[in-house]
Amino acid sequence: MARATARDRRRLPAALAVPAVAGAAFLVLPLTGLLARAPWTDLGSLLRSPVVADALRLSLLCATLATGLSALLGIPLAWVLARSTSRFVALLRALVTVPLVLPPVVGGVALLLTLGRTGVVGQYLDRWFGISLPFTTAGVVVAEAFVAMPFLVVTVEGAFRSADRGLEEAAATLGASRLFALRHVTLPLIVPSLLAGAVLSWARALGEFGATITFAGNFPGRTQTMPIAVYLAMESDPGAAIALALVLLVVSVAVLAALRDRWLPRGGAV
Amino acid sequence: MNRPLSVRRAELAIVALVLSGMAAACSSSPGTPASGSSSGPGSTPAVTGTVTVFAASSLKETFTSIAKRFEAAHPGTTVVLSFAASSALATQITSGAPADVFASASAKDMATLTSAGAATAPTTFATNSLTVVVPSANPAQIASLADLARAGVKVAQCQPAVPCGVLAAKVLATAGLTVTPATLEPDVKSVLTKVRLGEVDAGLVYVTDAVAAAGSVTAVPMPAGVNATTAYPIAALSHAANPAGARAFVDAVVSAEGLAVLKAAGFGAP
Q1: Is B159's CB within 8 Å of A35's CB?
Q2: Would the pTM of this model clear 0.80, i.e. be above it?
Q3: What range defines the domain where residue A79 resides?
């Protein structure tokens, strides 16, 4: 048998090409289906309706606040996970990443039973401070942060681990406290990962449905975010549901575009 | 940037496939029901196999009971029950969900199917009306429907697109009350759950839900003259995969035994 020519060796085998084409079609076709059925002529008026405007405003606000909360609590947590030498740190890491794989609706039930008005912790929030989170915009932020924060923690922890420890040690020998070194040496080093983690958790928060509707309920302008509005509109007004879905699609593509250098490296080398 | 020609060809194939999919989605007309093949009234085909029943959330207890009796009366049959808001089920059926029977909590959602040709000749088998339920502890001391309009009272009701939401709006309008709910839930059982957990002070649910949850919630009598009723139609679906089973299940619901189950649960006579 003659040796394969250079061209032959570069040929894509059918055993790979066929499933590759099918896989790509499987992922892309539903999106084109959404575009094909979009009520383009009514789109303007649908998107100007108060329900859509309220849901979009609420979604953007809550996803941003949830990302802020995730950063505020998640960066210190990521630092502890990356730097701690305790043997319990592996267990802690496993526990705090559970919401990453937990079905969101289960998260919603857990939040309701914990932070609800009669919940394990929530009853004291209600009794002592008069705070009741379910059915409030703050409740939406809590539900979204619960599912989104692990994305930020995992991303930032990885960055802390790969950041040059030598620089932190150098700062320490020059008299900097650990907090000062984190603030002025390590954090500036990991800004790209921090941004990626923040965008990732923002996108996750924006798409949150199960935990939100279970914990925060549904009321237009207060707790009805875009995904909930899409789901409920599908029952009564599919045109509005598609219009809302298109907005979410555009936002998602924009997020992907913002992170393209991280996730879609040119030339295939990762 | 010398990439193998065949890889580029595979990418082209993917794009072509996606575009052709879009074209197909554009050209196909939505919903082209095939004519249902129904055997004549004279023939009595044996009832076997699986009967898939889509039923309103409020029918959960009664239809589960009727389905058990049906399976006992027709050995070899299995009834698969799917409970959700009637409007959600109607949307699923018009989108091609494989159901044999649809039982709706409103004439409107059944009309959606009959006008689409998905169902013919529905039979009304029950009626239902609303009641106020409060958690056993009654934290907000609700004694009447009017108390729901008090400031600070947390009320859960169904979202306006589902039958119990339509009924709730009608009842509150008749009573001349302006209630700002804490949450508009996707179906009546979610409302009941929020009351059961004590997360809201009161909920508007069906009389039958209050009967079913009698141990964990307390019903507050409705004032005379403000209540409204909704009628429950049932029909075998035109595209039923098991038409004989579908007809037999509808017959079981409207039989004396089926109606007795419904009556015992608090449903009104058709």
Answers
A1: no
A2: no
A3: 60-223
